[in-house]
Amino acid sequence: MDQVPGTPFGVVYLDVPPVTSGLAVGALVAGIASILVALLVICFGVAFATNGGAWASGAFAVLGVLAGVAAIVAGLLARRQIRRPAPPPAVLFTGRGLAVAGISCGAAGALLSLLGLGLALLISLA
Question: What's the predicted TM-score (pTM) here?
Answer without folding.
Answer: 0.85
